[in-house]
Write a structure and sequence with these properties.
The chain is an all-alpha fold and about 200 residues long. The protein has one domain. It has nine helices and no strands. The model has no long low-confidence stretch (mean pLDDT about 90).
Amino acid sequence: MLIQILFTNPLIFLMIGAGLLFALSIHEYSHAQMADFLGDPTAKFQGRLTINPFAHLDPLGTLFLFVFGFGWGKPVPFNPYNLRNRKQGEILVGLAGPLSNFLTAIIFGFIFRSFPFFRANIFLIYFVWINIILAVFNLLPFPPLDGSHVFLNILPSSARKFILVAGPFSIIFALLFMLYIGFPFIAQPLFRLIMGINLPL
């Protein structure tokens, strides 16, 4: 659990906590920006078109973040009927968050690899890792994760029914997937590819 690090290495705890907050803010802001760009100003009117973490924090989700190392922000509201192309728009709004985290990881990975000064920056290392995890996790096709907005609009009806029936068990499926497949076989190879080093666990 993340909270254990607070008592063993408070500085690392603060770095990870700050990284989580800013990565989550980038993620939610990108949803809001894409929805606004595609014609739905709902998130903008609710003050969500900002990188300010306090606009995106969910109290319980934030508590989980700092205790367990995973949690959630307030979902960005959008009205699909306001989008210029509803089906395509839902897909793009859903993809905006995870892709923004991938892009953030790539940009900071480039900085890390290009400037030797940053090679000792632990915050940068964890920040890239957090963004990769957020991206991979949220692309899973289980509600309420972002990937569900994508897959529910492109899969055949039989597959859509399976995703919807998963219902309350979907997050359990997602967490098990991340534990046994996502972390070791997707996130860690992506981290090595972007950063050129192994994750210092």
